[in-house]
Records
---
Amino acid sequence: MTGAPGISAVIKLLFFGRLGDSAVTAPEFFEASEGLTASAVRDALAIEHPLLVEALLEPQVLVSIDRVIADWNQPLTDGCELAFLPPVTGG
Amino acid sequence: MTGAPGISAVIKLLFFGRLGDSAVTAPEFFEASEGLTASAVRDALAIEHPLLVEALLEPQVLVSIDRVIADWNQPLTDGCELAFLPPVTGG
Amino acid sequence: MYRRVVVQNEDFDLADEYRRLRQLDAAIGAVVTFCGLVRDCQQQARIDSLNLQHYPGMTEASLNEVVATAEQRWPLHGVSVIHRVGELLPSDQIVFVGVASSHRAAAFQAADFLMDYLKTHALLWKSVEIDGQRSWVEAKDSDQRALQRWMQSSTSP
Amino acid sequence: MYRRVVVQNEDFDLADEYRRLRQLDAAIGAVVTFCGLVRDCQQQARIDSLNLQHYPGMTEASLNEVVATAEQRWPLHGVSVIHRVGELLPSDQIVFVGVASSHRAAAFQAADFLMDYLKTHALLWKSVEIDGQRSWVEAKDSDQRALQRWMQSSTSP
């Protein structure tokens, strides 16, 4: 359910891989208006935390909401978990 | 070393796979003139042991002399081990 | 279909995993296993350790997706995938893939496919420590190329 | 290069073979194993047992030739091949192939190649007992076709 703009939403932030390294200065939580999109949060973080800009705006970075890969335009709800996922390098 | 014809050679015979089954009547040893070829022994066996004919004359059958794959025209020497090897079906 | 997908810090035992797979069905004729080990050198540098980061829940889900794709593509009796995370030293086991099938071609192809897909689809991030310096490992072009084999050709048995 | 080629009546232990392979070199990043098992059914018939006949000395030589070909074709740290002979029952282990390499592609390809070549080049003759009737197994066309993969294409890494 997408709340009306103006209602405050607290979003939990997670950064993986090299994003975790650059994100040492990034907050664990982000307060926004409910209904804000994942890409809007990313852009706000990139402005506030210069160390994150390059790694966060790479086109290969994926986003998940509540542990499901999501579209950058998906609106966020209060209490959700937003994770930034750089290209995988496992195995 | 190829002996002169007329000198007697005793050849040990081995039959593998389905040849072993048909060869129940075939001898363990074959006495021949030294210098006889593997194919001559095969033909003699096929004539004397009708059960062997079909399986022995199949074109895929290989022959080994003293545990090395050999040419059918290779001459045999006294005391050698001649083995008839049908197509393999291992693994 | 037996499926076992695990992400863990602990080491695994190939013998245990193999025993589970071979006992699943008397129609099994082939079990292929792959074990990935930490190499002591990478790009000519001697490494001190690897560290694999995962996202609990999501990493398991990504592995399950890869396994489901293999199950659809080949006739299999069982698949096991174990991926270790955390700190790993040279010669440590990192990843296990085991496949049981009636026929060897399916077992080989599915295991090979699973490894190629894990390298590119498993949600895992690897860092390497060399001379006390930790750095993140970049995604490899060779892994992307390996993957394309499975897309271009119909390699089902 | 470590090479172990054995023809034996006794069963083998995957864990032992794997341990030998993985310990050979700290540069090893991939160990692929294949275990062949006796299937309970063949062409819809329930089998009582298999029997594998070998020619002592020559069978080992034929296996060594197959392994030598793989060693020339891929960069390997070690290869083990164990083939059992004699009477075997459903679910028994028949054959083991293990390959250790720095890279997974070489390990997978060499193990796959070894099995295809063993099926067609190892001097072994298999008979099967069904309902108390023993019969010799014919060479399979599918094994011949599998083999041709390795001749047509250059599959080296």
---
Amino acid sequence: MTRFSSRVLRSAVPALSFGVILAAIFVIQPRAMSYVGMNLMLNLALPIAFATIAQLFVLTIGDLDLSIGGFVSLVACIAATWLNDTPLLGVAALLACIGVYALLGALIHWRNLPSIVVTLGMSFVWLGCAVLILPSPGGSAPTWLTAIVKFKTPYVPLSILGAAVLAFVVHVALMRSAAGVVLRGAGGNAQAVARAGWSLLRVKVTMYALAGCFGVLSGLVLVGTTTSADANIALRYTLFSIAGAILGGAEFTGGRVSPIGAVLGALTLALVGSLLSFMRISPDWQIGAQGIMLIAVLALRTLVNRLEAREA
Amino acid sequence: MQLTPIGISRPMTASPARSPTPLVALSGVTKSFGAVRALGGVDLAIGPGECLGLVGHNGAGKSTLMQILAGTLHHDEGTLVAGGAPTGAFSVGAAHDAGIRCVFQELSLCPNLSVAENTRLRHPGLKGFGWRQPAGALIEATLSEIFPGHTIRPDDLVADLELGERQMVEIAMNFTATGDRPRLVILDEPTSSLDHSVAAQLLAHVRRFVAAGGSVILISHILGDILGTSDRIVVMRDGRVVAERPAAQFDRAALVAAMGHVAETAPETAAAAVAEARPADRPIVEARPPRQRGARSLTLYPGQIVGLAGLAGHGQTALLRLIQNAAGSTSRFAKVEGSVAFVAGDRQADGVFPLWSIGQNVTIRSLAALSRFGLIDGRRERAVEEAARETFQIRTPDMDDNILTLSGGNQQKALFARALASDAAIIAMDDPMRGVDVGTKREVYARIAEEAEKGRAFLWYTTEFDELLNCSHVYVFRSGEIVADLPRGELTEEKVLQSSFEETADA
Amino acid sequence: AQEASDKTFALSNNYAGNSWRQAMIKSWETGTKAAVEAGAAKAADAFTTGENSPTEQAAQLQNLILQGYNAIVLNAASPSALNGAVKEACDAGITVVSFDGVVTEPCAWRVAVDFKKMGVDQIDYLATRYPDGGNLLEIRGLAGTSVDDEIHAGLLEGIKKHPNFKIVREVQGDWTQTVAQKSVASVLPSLPEIVGVVTQGGDGYGAAQAFEAAGKPVPTIIMGNRQDELAWWKEQKDKNGYETFSQSIAPGVSTLAFWVAKEILDGTEVPKDLSVPTLRIDQDGLEKGLEMTPEGGVTNVEYTEEQAKAVIAGK
Amino acid sequence: MSEATLTTKRPGLKRLGRSYPFLFSFVGAAVIFAVTLVVNSFNGAGPILTAALTFGAFTVVVGLGQMFVITTGPGNIDLSVPSTIAFAGAVAMKLMEGQDSLIFLGLAAALGVGLVIGAFNYLLIRALKIPPIIATLSSSFIIQSLAIAYGRGLMIKPPPLLAEIATGRVAGLPIVALVALALSLVMAVVLHRTVYGRSVAAIGQNIRAAGLAGVKVDRVRFATYVLSAMLAALCGTLLAGFSGGASLNMGEEYLLASIAVVVVGGSAVAGGSSNVSGIWGAALFLTLLVTMLNTFGVGAGVRQLLTGLIIIAVITLAGGRKGARH
Ligand SMILES: Nc1ncnc2c1ncn2[C@@H]1O[C@H](COP(=O)(O)OP(=O)(O)OP(=O)(O)O)[C@@H](O)[C@H]1O
Ligand SMILES: Nc1ncnc2c1ncn2[C@@H]1O[C@H](COP(=O)(O)OP(=O)(O)OP(=O)(O)O)[C@@H](O)[C@H]1O
Ligand SMILES: [Mg+2]
Ligand SMILES: [Mg+2]
């Protein structure tokens, strides 16, 4: 019984952090407590949430993707140029990108390579492609894309709905479905999965392809919001996605991940930025305050774990 | 969706034992790892409806042979016939199709998944919408059938389970049938982390399974289990089969002799000589389990060997850890004078450094003593490694080989060597004989006695009753508490069991 | 009209990791503090993000919208990637004035430096020094940014004008002195005779160091108003009459943008595209330039309301 | 140096890469150097190598610290390296005031800054149980703010002697490279021949087992984070001496670089096994790569693309390591 309740508590921590920060924001800036306010605070968090989920797939099998930021940038550049001007070419290019991701998975498996080095190399490759496609910032997002991303849903902003759907779908697919068990198992004990007769190659390829898919979605949502691209637009997503996943309770080993936590983690990161700008800190310390805030959020997690340990 | 409980394994229509067509037959199978010849031409056949006992010293090649049967290793030469047809490249899939299931010596569960999810991993048939419920029901049913009274629930995370519980899950999983039924279940040291009663439940289940027409290969270093459960016993030595007879034609002494060990000379008396405590004036360990009610506490004097008993997972390991951590720092629950060395029982989780050589694994606990001017003295390190190899007869061509190239029992010996080579005054042992063969066990007992004679103190948690006879007195644990302190003279298996189960009124 | 104002201003900045940006924030703080005290504005807060990331800055803009500032003065991480957020600000009735890093969104104002001209000027200058032309080394900035692209385009245009010049090698300096130094040092061994090094500002000292370390004669390096560059130049000038020129956009342009925003809020008709000249130091002005540059900093001027009006009027 | 490796006996290229995982980075560096020379029609071999040694040296210094951190196990990484470089460099320059006599004071202060940062990092990791990657990221933000508030990004000239040391040569070899080499030798001994080094590797393989085998886990991890920060601080001081002062962004490129030299150099990304030689191979490889691409004179996009592809090609040829058995 304690086993169960502690697990529930552990998984409630990301939601708790999110709630605490949101409450702080509402106190400092009541204007945020509205449809418009929530949308303004969170619509740029949606692409980060997608990137975080992409990262999560890679983390699930015990790998790390240092290239997701460059990849999302490239997707943004493709979407703002080819996808707009010659949609067929654009779609083909995006599919090819996912294909390359899947191949990376295969390469990493075949040669038994450390994912960090391969994706480190890929981060240069993606950025190089982005610069080649869009040497100077510009381009414009396809109108249909902007229309979708900026669509005003009734009552609840699209960014929140989107994040909720994302979290739910990935949760069901990865945490509840029968196929998800195999994928996560490969992160926990790859050998056991192989001994049970599953193909590790297929697992890796699937996970990297999924990462690619969600990277593409992230890039699309991003250009839809910004309407225009830049080769350097999403380089920070690499760090954000890792931070978001970790905030959401993921661990670097053993396939311990939580899609709902990861999405909440990404949103929490965005809210931290908002809270900081509402607090009006001297510019010297604005960057540092971001660090302190991150520490505070994670310290909260530790606190909860302590309480739980005392209970047990 | 209504899934009829696919059910508890009712192995196939019972066929007469020892039928002419064996389930699997190996002939002339060899396997080498680099310079190590693990199998040197093995012939073996197992028919339906029999339990084959497989014994042999550590590193004899038992696990390697089983891995070949399970399709996770490929043999170099020889033939393997499964299901009547010779198979060239035998794969995991082929083994599965032939109805072969294997409980590996080093467990293969995914710690990040729940029990039900691990079940799903093993049984590809469990899929589709709402798979969880039947998967849970299935494993729950098998667990209850084999281990009545267990407390494992399908949605427990494997990482949260005790080693013994994990072993139970793994065993149950392999006896579970979904679409296709298990015909041959390989159990590679299944009882090494189970306590006595649970082990008995398992062996009883093996008999039932065999009676219903299934086959089992049982590997164990606990010869009583082998003798009492098998129909036929195969003895391996140095990668070859050296004896094969119906179980009835073996007795303990014959088995030991066949394995290549010198016959035993009444083991208990050897230990008895040293087991008498010589309490010095001051105890070097005084500890109270955190959950202990009442005044009882554990004390250990220099030169003493003290046993910890009780059912697995009732706080013995936790207390050993606590004592280990309390050495060199202050703790609310334990006062420890002198350094502690720990011998892990769960060697993968608590003991082995998988990237290191055998030698490095042995010396890690003694490095400070092997250093001169802050630098580790390579020559002295090597000397310790070689001494360890000799005293514990670690089977390897080279102590520089990776630790994982050792057989399970030999890894365990390396861990023993690590602790005994150190300068620790107190050795905490967490069921340390898991998977160690009889011959080595006897030598280790002797070593322990010798060391105790020299003044070292031992805390010895074990799930095997016989080992407790080496101790001067035994603390019995239940639910994280010490519930009894039995002096050696009063030690009987019944008493230990009684204290382990019974709710005592007092404290 | 200098009556007490109830208008609030925010500075949105995207990078804080160099002396130029630090001087820019400082100028904003000193310049606007005076304005607030004089009652020309109710508040003027500075906001900065760390890593030159367009998405972070876009999120910051949206937060500023939510806080209800009347005007946002913006040094943008990207001319295009912030357009979505800038549009939202405009739609919320906020005046957006971009400077230095300007945005292309039509609803915003731009206080722009003609980066292209900065490129052309470098070649023009070199043409006066070396009428016969020669080989050039180019140190580029951050790849994929518009400033980098435009200065580069300016250089190419200048070379079209003076075809006897040729850029023989292009290296990446990322606007970071240590990177520039490394890149220059790494190509020096393979470089033919060159007459000049064209830069994007701030990389001159590192380049000079690299040449000196390799024991090669230092060509004419175009400087970028950093004090260390000017000091080095002065040293060389005194020693051997070294000649070059130095140019950069003054960090105090943030105050100019502030005053422009104030004018717009006051209802003055202001064209969407304004241009500020670069701050240029020539051989003769070197001593004076060095004097007005703080130790280890960038040559700077802050702008007044009058200067802003003059710029608006196109003078 | 004796490198800890698996000794599964199998012939050929794979075997070589397994017992000498660092070899491939040297081979890669050599190939790239050769290509550069060919393109350059065999001119300037000396200067190219000298430049590579100089700039490689800075990466090696931070890479050594990062290596120890990464060796302590999966998830361990020090992201505060860049801001430590900037802050420590600024502190050193400010205290030295451009005077030779104050060099030691400045250096000591910089190292002190490193010590405090390392201790703070581990405090976050241990006391607040924050995953290292986020702990060091957060502290890097704080340090960056400190650096801004402390130095306002103003560049203060280093003392002439320091500048001379940082840019000088002895027997044709850059002094910084010699310093880095000496440091590497010491670190190699520390890694392979001291209790601390063994403990780091033990923790990286199995932290639980390490604790039970008597390794002082907390002390060792603490020392490791402090070591990393102090080496970053040293690098910051040298770099400031080399490039004419400390600037706020001078550490930026060392975030990726410090990680890249460790992992390209053949240390196990998941911890437990590492080597010092590989750091040199990788540092030379990566700096020579920049030289080569600059020599080719290709545009930024193609340059990035080639950088990535070459890194992947080298690591693919080197291959990974397989666990022995389970
Ligand atoms: N991957 C490997 N590399 C090198 N040697 C190996 C490897 N696997 C097994 N061996 C060697 O093969 C021999 C047989 O090992 P195996 O594990 O089959 O023994 P075992 O009979 O199961 O012993 P135990 O009773 O200790 O479990 C041992 O000498 C072992 O060292
Ligand atoms: N890393 C950067 N990211 C974004 N913008 C930058 C960066 N570096 C410089 N800039 C901007 O580029 C323009 C010119 O930069 P320049 O190279 O002249 O100076 P700097 O980088 O500030 O100098 P230093 O590095 O010597 O402090 C300015 O608009 C400056 O704000
Ligand atoms: Mg075995
Ligand atoms: Mg610059």
